[in-house]
Amino acid sequence: MPRKSPFLTIGEVAARTGLAVSAIRYYADEGLITALRSEGGNRRFTRSEIRKVSFIAISQRLGFSLAEIRGQLDRLPGDRPPTKADWARISTGFRDAIDERMAQLERLRDRLDGCIGCGCLSLDTCAIYNGDDKAAALGPGANWVEKRESDLGRPVRPQPAG
Amino acid sequence: MPRKSPFLTIGEVAARTGLAVSAIRYYADEGLITALRSEGGNRRFTRSEIRKVSFIAISQRLGFSLAEIRGQLDRLPGDRPPTKADWARISTGFRDAIDERMAQLERLRDRLDGCIGCGCLSLDTCAIYNGDDKAAALGPGANWVEKRESDLGRPVRPQPAG
DNA sequence: ATACTTTCTCAAGTCAACTTGAGATCAAGG
DNA sequence: CCTTGATCTCAAGTTGACTTGAGAAAGTAT
């Protein structure tokens, strides 16, 4: 084990963050975090990189993709270690994102209440599916409120399971 | 185009739900929905299958995986078309799931407020990451509140961008 | 110097949820 | 019957976020 250096090995970063070594390597290769190199060529990380890894892990928990996370990390200074203020700014963005997601769910739930009443669950009329964030362009009205369920015609045979 | 039958072609199901034909086929192959067959071997769907497809699409919007959705769909009767009550029961499950997700986010947000204050974002101490739903087993305290950032030692060279 | 662990580089595999493509067949209007 | 468009099967490709494996080199304790 490496003794005493301001730099951390990939294994240490992995241990500190609880992630797999391969994940850390992946983030470094993707440029999400910065890896320096030892004389022998092994990756070495500054402590501030750990914070970035933490940021990545937490953001993923909130449902952000690595692409989105990259966008946030790009807002950090590239020439100096990020300060508390730098991180706080991004944390605030987090809070906003959470609030937004919650508001979305709340709208969804309200609409759902109506849906439980009507029991429709039809894509074209369902308020959940056709929220304000995405409107599917659909054909003429589908009638999920029982129109005529008789009129059997063509014979059928069950699908061979598989 | 098929004229007048209580059964729908895969293309009609796709058009009604706004999904791709390949997606419908995939769901049928996976057994999430039931496909009957025409004499010639083409898939034929009852109207209630559309509702299932809608259910799948909506559930995915709420962040459920197909595996979870399958679990819900399995609760529907296999021998008869689902009634309004059957669907309402599942819709209620929806509502509960949304409420749960919202509660999770709310806890997250409250914890985040503390984090913005401390500016930590450290995986082992961060309240967001170490929520009540998952506790990472980590080593002895990582000190992200600046311990000693001096003591440079081993030389390093930047990683070849790639 | 030896032994042992860690890390390295690639390449390839995994999983979910589908999509795409090839070549053949079905269905329906004229 | 013929033509056109919809479907069929089966295999393989796609994307995101990694993991796994092989074989070699680095790093550290003794």
UniProtKB/TrEMBL annotation, chains A, B:
An example Gene Ontology molecular-function term: DNA-binding transcription factor activity
One annotated GO biological process: response to oxidative stress
HTH merR-type domain residues: 7-75
SUPFAM superfamilies in the record: Putative DNA-binding domain (SSF46955)
One Pfam family it belongs to: MerR
Domain of life: Bacteria
UniProt keyword annotation of Iron present: yes
Alphabetical keyword list: 2Fe-2S, DNA-binding, Iron, Iron-sulfur, Metal-binding, Transcription, Transcription regulation
Protein name in UniProt: Redox-sensitive transcriptional activator SoxR
